[in-house]
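FYI - complex with adenosine-5'-diphosphate, inputs then prediction.
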Amino acid sequence: MSARQSHVPELTDGFHLVVDALELNGVSTMYGVVGIPITDVARIAQARGIRYIGFRQEQAAGHAAAAAGFLTRRPGICLTVSAPGFLNGLVALANATTNCFPMIQISGSSERAIIDLQQGDYEELDQLAAARPYTKAAFRVDRPEDIGLGVARAIRAAVSGRPGGVYLDLPASVLGATLDASEGRASLFRAVDPAPIQLPSAAAVDRALGVLVRAKRPLLILGKGAAYARAEGPIRTFIESTGMPFLSMSMAKGLLPDDHPQSAAAARSLALKNADVVMLVGARLNWLLAHGRSPKWSDECRFVQVDVSPEEIDSNRPIAAPVIGDIDEAMKLLVVALGDRPVTAPRVWRDAIDAKKAQNVARMRAHLAADAVPMNFYGALRAIRDVLAERDGVFVVNEGANTLDFARDILPMHEPRKRLDSGTWGVMGVGMGYAIAAAVESGRSVIAVEGDSAFGFSGMEVETICRYKLPIVVVVFNNGGIYKGDEVNRWSSDPAPTVLSRTSRYDKLMEAFGGTGYHAEDPGAVSAALESALASGKPALVNCMIDPTAGTESGHLQSLNAESTLRPSP
Ligand code: ADP
Ligand code: TZD
Ligand code: MG
């Protein structure tokens, strides 16, 4: 070897530094769609032992990353190409931010100098500017030696405080730039304590108990922030020692089992309307809780709110006792404080809730037993419920309108963080991404209960499910439409706006990619299909035929649906 060659420095480049930085910070899985300029990020990640799950469309990959973030409390990573790939992923990043899920979208981008002068580069877009309004934070790395810092800042921004979506822009020139390997190594670091636990003050805890002690009709509402905080231990102790009735928002279901005697789920309206003190634990007073306003709520109701985000307080109703901090820690402090200042939910209130529950449970039982022909939501969901009752650890993913509303009420959850659904935005298209992330991150089985419209938003990811051989059973509730399948277009021969083809055989789509398809027209066929699919642990899809007249427009959200009083007459 000549003296000259021996001085050639060992080199690294932006591609390697990105992967090195992610690995150093504990990232073990990435979701995405590759292409110019980020393909080698995925290859190098695989070479380093980071799992890369390649999707058919970025939106589903992004939803997978978001769900991974919710389930693991580490930022889910979504890798996208420039401009259109970036924009496809941005929907999921915005949805993650809205839902308070930690996620980082890492996107390649084109030549800055050309983008900034709008000279028409390949996939030209000012991605950083486009991402900023929809994210918790957005960064661009303009020099390879800043990659380590950019990754660390992105991680910290995603998981600290209220978690959310973070955008990290990596121009192709930075990915391809080389630098001395030792200089590169020295530029990387592991973020220390990226999500520091915050504690509420003793005064805040005391104030909260002061409000609760005087309550005649207290109610506790659990939201998905409590699920994210993994606070089921102290929450259960608090609820059981106070005797307070509780309601679980959909993704908080299972923190305490739905059949817990203090669950007020089957008396929800009565509980909301009559409560005089409501304690919100990781739940926002947004549209999902009617903003805390009448007529659903009492105007006299006072609030205790446990949340990590101080700006959330007073957003809809004045909060008498804000408790700002991590829910797990806050609930532990509240439990300790109960020792000196016990809170007891009055018996008459609990009895009133129990009486209403008994009525509603009997009514639901009759619906579930009715066995309507053709099969309706009740029959199909009874079958799914009974199969789930025999198994632990199965995830339920759920989207649609009626399919969502009925399944949320009928499928009981017994374990925390096992239900993933349309969430804060009521968004369609999350189903396959959420199901894939749940299976990838946990190795457990997933049942995705999907409206036929909802499934269509990410249906091609069935190929992804098959390619990675994931234990996912997709159940498509085929009622031939958005909400219903029986609308007739009174004005032309085109299908009506809400109509989809009811003759669709979604099961064949799964078969096309090597999975198992089932077609079910009655509850018995649904349970047989589910039993066999879950036992096999292989990808499956049940085309579950539902009466096209069974749903209602907008599901449970009719009050939000603006309808024209001036529709033309036929
Ligand atoms: P849901 O839709 O279930 O009602 P939301 O998404 O509206 O729940 O509310 C979740 C809330 O939980 C957010 O206000 C968020 O700031 C809060 N949160 C998330 N993680 C934590 C945590 N670890 N500790 C405290 N609050 C948290
Ligand atoms: N697009 C996106 C991204 N999210 C949405 N929520 C909608 C459109 C509007 N929308 C709903 O709010 S529910 C729904 C749409 C299109 C589908 C309902 O039909 P479904 O469920 O087949 O999924 P049901 O059981 O037929 O009601
Ligand atoms: Mg439908």
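The pocket of magnesium ion (ligand 3) is lined by residues 451-453, 479, 481 (CB under 6 Å). The first strand starts at residue 11 and ends at 13.
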